[in-house]
Amino acid sequence: MILACLLAALVVVIAGLTLGNYLDPDSESNASSAAETNQPTEKTEVELSSEPKAEPEQESEDWDVEVAEESKAAVGAVTDPTDIRVLVNKLNPLTPASFAPGDLVSAAGAGVTDTDPSIVLRAEAAEHAAQMSIDAAAAGAGFGVTSGFRSYETQNQLYSNYSAVDGQAAADTYSARPSFSEHQTGLAFDAIAPAAGCYDLGCFGSTPAAGWLAQNSWQYGFILRYPEGSQPVVGYMYEPWHFRYIGVDLARDYHESGAATYEEFLGEPAAPNYAN
User: Fold this and answer.
1) Which domains can be identified in the chain, with CATH numbers?
2) 27-43 pLDDT, tens per residue?
3) What is the helix, strand, coil percentage profile of the chain, to 5?
């Protein structure tokens, strides 16, 4: 009887120890379970959407202004004769002096109306001049080109002839010396208006074409290079027939700037006279 009681008591003790070990929060197995339970989980879309989002970085408001100023400064520095933006005047001759562009094409072949096939321009200028002439004709202001690219030799002959007839001082007011002429770039042309009965430069200023070109040429990348009253800056008398290609984007900027001359637009000094 006593032995049975002892055995029963021993069973109770053993059972208690086993149950206590199972429930002990400091046991290795329970610590592992707790650690697993407390592991971070991936956030749901709802939780993510409720969190504040970082504001995107704002671009500087001065960016466009800075770029525009850098672009303008770069244009003023262009001396490469192959660059359509090149500045050519009495203080900025072409280098080399005998420069001739390598992409000359027939203006008439490109589509310029009322133009002799022998007259050539640089390909890009010819393409835009062609579209401009077509649109001008449609507006009742048709024009043709009477002079485009001129070589160093041709310009030298013209200038020498004018100087011999009128004297050098007078010739310098209406004719460029060789290597100082925009015509040598292949980017400039002189216009006539056969549709209005005008076949020379002297009558062009009074034709509808002159007014139309003065108002609209910038849309095609051209500018009136020697406006009325600009001789103290550009160095030449008023030439309503002389248009220079500088590219569509730059011509738009020029037009919107309100500048009276290309020199003013570029921030370059006036060039009324040659340096020597």
Assistant:
1) 87-266 (3.30.1380.10)
2) 333 333 333 333 333 33
3) 50, 10, 40
